[in-house]
Amino acid sequence: MDPLEEVFRSMRVESALYGRLEATAPWAVRFTGDQRIKFGMVARGACWLSVDGERQPIALRSGDCFVLTDGRSFSVADDPATPPRPCIEVLHDGPGRLMALGGGGPAATLIAGWFGFDGHGGKPLFAELPPVLHVGMDEERARALQATLDLLALETSEEGLGAGIVTKRLADIILVQTIRTYVHKTGWQRTGWLAALTQPRLGVAVRAMHHQIDRAWTVDELASIAGMSRSAFAAAFREKVGEAPHAYLTRWRMYKAGCLIRGGRVSLAQAARAVGYRTDSAFNRIFQRHYGVTPAAYRRTLAAS
């Protein structure tokens, strides 16, 4: 399995839309911060995005999409200087819709929403990403995202049968596509497992490790898959990923084990075997080193909470 797909499957994402905002200048709305991921897209017109902690506002035009990965507060406006109204003041007919507002000037349409997800499942991904992702439609690999954004704009403008479930599924796709577009755009400039996935040789080896995470991989085997010498592969892997292959494999095994235990559908012994440990003692020792508690204590804590 591709590690990015693995993380998305483990996150157990719950998506919800704030709704559709039809605005005419001057206008500004502020969304409060919390632990959820925020996203938005400009379906028509243009606006400015101001994010808490960021020094400069971001200009958005029709088709642009943004994702805030740490749930901080933000504002959207026709102009950064326009005083914003709290989101709660412009809610209309419940939390699923935003009323029109503004002064009758140039029009803009914004669709905004959030994603709630399991923190453990999303940790490897969001630890790699910056707090603000901005994808413009003139960027490479943006055509698929544009098609999804167009569908979302259509669904939120009509009250068709099943519109609610369709918009939630489209929102999920937007999250995946935005992150994927960002990775393809900037991954080669950064370090970490996302950056390694964009490398032709290292990416093959990383995917092989995830595809058979329970296998007792050797550096020689991984180097062979990557088409590199052992020393060249080990050096390139450490430089790009930031740790040695075996350390990386162990970390992802523990992540996978944590996801399996949190899912509650397997025994501790089955979780250990699924990530490559043939004895419970070895699994318990590594798990406790990683999480600070034994697998049994970890499960008891989850059950209690």
List keywords for this structure.
305 residues; alpha+beta; Jelly Rolls; Arc Repressor Mutant, subunit A; 2 domains; six-stranded mixed β-sheet; 11 strands
Describe the 3D structure.
The chain has 305 residues and is α+β, with helices and mostly antiparallel strands. The chain has 2 domains: 3-188, Sandwich (Jelly Rolls); 194-304, Orthogonal Bundle (Arc Repressor Mutant, subunit A), CATH 1.10.10. Helices cover 46% and strands 19% of the residues. It has helices spanning 3-11, 119-126, 143-157, 163-186, 193-197, 200-211, 219-226, 230-241, 245-263, 268-274, 280-291, 295-304, and strands at residues 14-24, 28-31, 37-44, 46-51, 58-61, 65-68, 74-77, 85-86, 101-102, 107-116, 132-135. A hairpin with a 6-residue loop joins strand 4 and strand 5 (58-61). The mean pLDDT is 86.
Brief overview:
This protein has 305 residues and is an alpha+beta fold. The chain is 46% helix and 19% strand.
Topology:
Elements: H1 3-11, E1 14-24, E2 28-31, E3 37-44, E4 46-51, E5 58-61, E6 65-68, E7 74-77, E8 85-86, E9 101-102, E10 107-116, H2 119-126, E11 132-135, H3 143-157, H4 163-186, H5 193-197, H6 200-211, H7 219-226, H8 230-241, H9 245-263, H10 268-274, H11 280-291, H12 295-304
Parallel strand pairs: 1-9, 2-8
Antiparallel strand pairs: 1-10, 2-7, 3-6, 3-10, 4-5, 4-7, 6-11
Helix pairs in contact: 1-2, 3-4, 6-7, 7-8, 9-10, 9-11
